[in-house]
Structure formats: C-alpha cells, structure tokens
Amino acid sequence: MKIDAISVFPEMFDSLNQSLIGKAIENELIEFQTLNPRQFTSDVHKTVDDSPYGGGAGMVMKPEPLGKALDSLVDSDSVIIFPSPAGKLFDQATAKDLATRQHLVFVCGRYEGIDQRVVEYASTKAETLELSIGDYVINGGEMASVVMIEAISRLIPGVIGNSDSLIEESHEDGLVEYPSYTKPASWNGLDVPEVLLSGNHAEIDKWRKLQQIDRTKKNRPDLI
Ligand code: 6SD
Predict the structure, then answer these.
(1) What pLDDT does residue 144 have?
(2) Residue 153, pLDDT score
(3) Does the beta carbon of 67 sit less than 6 angstroms from any atom of ligand 1?
(4) Pocket probe mutation, ligand 1, options 66, 91, 137, max atoms within 8 Å of Cβ
(5) Which residue lies with its CA nearest to atom 4 of ligand 1?
(6) Is 85 in the pocket of ligand 1 (CB under 6 A)?
(7) CB of 134 closer than 6 A to ligand 1?
(8) pTM of this structure
(9) DSSP string, the chain
C-alpha cells in the first residue's frame, strides 16, 4: 500500500518509523511519504493560510497549495482522507475497508481548518472522506492521521506477524477486550485470576468472554 500525507508539519509523522509500522515501511510493505504544501506556494513567505471570508477567529488554509499538492499525488484509485472533527467517525470497520485500498492520501489541516472547496475539488478526482477520530478537538490533522494510519496499517497482511492477535482484539466482535495478565502470579498482594492458571482452555475462553461482556456493559454501554 502507498500512503501519502500532505502536511505543513511533516516531522509529526516521524513516530510512524518506530515499531511494527516502521518495520513495514522499511520492508516496503507500506510506502509512506509526506508532502509539504509550502512547496506549491509562489510568494516569498510561502503562505499557506489566509483570513476567513465572513470574518471570525484564526486563519484558514488556502486552496491553491493543497490543490496543487493533490494534483501531484492523486489518481482515480486513490482514497483522499481529510481528518476533521466534523467528519464521520473512523472506526475498526473503516480501518478494515481502507486497509484493502491501493493508495491513501491524508490531507492535514492546521489553523482553523481548510477551505471547503479543497474537499469538493478532491471529490472530483477520487473517493474522498472526511473522518473524525473522536468527539474532541485537536490542533490539526497530523496526529489524527497518525492514529488512522496505524489502525489501517496493522491490518495489512504481513505487518503484524501473528494474525491471531488481530482476530482476538477489541471491537472485532463488537465487544471490548478481556483483561490480560503475565508473570508473576502474585504481585503486591494482587493475584492473577485462578482460572488462567488452570490450563482448562474451555473454562478460560468462557471466563474471557464473560469479562468482555462485563467490561463492555460497564465501559461502553453504547456498544451493547
Ligand atoms: C485544523 C484539524 C483537523 C483540526 C480533529 C479531528 C478530530 N477528531 N478532532 N480534531 C482535527 C482535524 C482538528 O485541522
């Protein structure tokens, strides 16, 4: 898979070079690149923002540099993603779908956001999605993109060695994950649940499923 991120802060993507995603980039399972829209400005100040029409606080990202950046990257097989608190919720089903695509392009806003015509223009070139990682506001699209890229990349075959660990995880069956324990069996007066030491795998599976249901009811009643 090819992944591009258009951003005025390309260093914010450096964390993707760590751990399993970093290995997948190194092994060319994922081809990841950033593109700075300042490269497509023509004034001495390399201006990428301007004041909003209609007034209001802050600045808005100008359409021309982002449009040119998209022109340089996108073809009709691309999926263009605009992280936005106003977008549809990005969830595990979205991650699974996007993990099957050939080319993803993340367009990162800064300041108060992006001139909406860039989203309209992108839609004329390829499938375009406005996606939110949750109901809170952060300062730009970069960290939201990093979250989505990690969630998508780990679903690409070969990125995570043990595919069982993908299946067993939270949200695959509509429930959150069961709790995990490791050695020592007793620590600071706290004991690992007896059943996990029993070697009885039918009982362990039953206990884990009950834990998933209890935790989901308690922490995520919206999923029940
Ligand atoms: C200015 C952005 C882009 C600002 C965002 C996305 C989510 N879920 N919260 N905040 C966000 C995205 C904020 O550009």
Answers:
(1) 98
(2) 98
(3) no
(4) 137
(5) 140
(6) yes
(7) yes
(8) 0.96
(9) -EEEEE-S-GGGGGGGGSHHHHHHHHTTSSEEEEE-GGGG--STT---EEPPTT--SS-EE-HHHHHHHHHHH--TTEEEEEEEEEEEEP-HHHHHHHTT-SEEEEE---TT-B-THHHHHHHHHSEEEEEESSSS--SSHHHHHHHHHHHHHTTSTTSSS-HHHHHTSTTTTSSPPPP---S-SEETTEE--GGGGS--HHHHHHHHHHHHHHHHHHH-GGG-
Report the separation in Å between the CA atom of 206 and the middle of ligand 1, taken as the mean of its atom positions: 40
Residue nearest to atom 2 of ligand 1 (CA): 140
Distance 158 CA to ligand 1 centre (A): 30
Per-residue confidence (pLDDT) for residue 169, from 0 to 100:
73
Q: Is 190 exposed, middle or buried (0-12, 13-18, 19+ CB in 10 A)?
A: exposed
10-residue stretch averages of pLDDT, the chain, 224 residues long: 98 97 97 98 98 97 98 98 98 97 98 96 98 98 98 97 70 90 98 98 98 98 95
What's the CA gap between 141 and 106, in Å, rounded? 8
pLDDT of residue 168: 62
Find out whether the beta carbon of 83 lies less than 6 Å from any atom of ligand 1: yes
Q: Please give the distance, rounded to the nearest whole angstrom, from the Cα atom of residue 99 to the centre of ligand 1.
A: 22
In this structure, the residue with its CA closest to atom 10 of ligand 1 is 137
Instruction: Please tell me the predicted confidence (pLDDT) of residue 173.
Output: 83
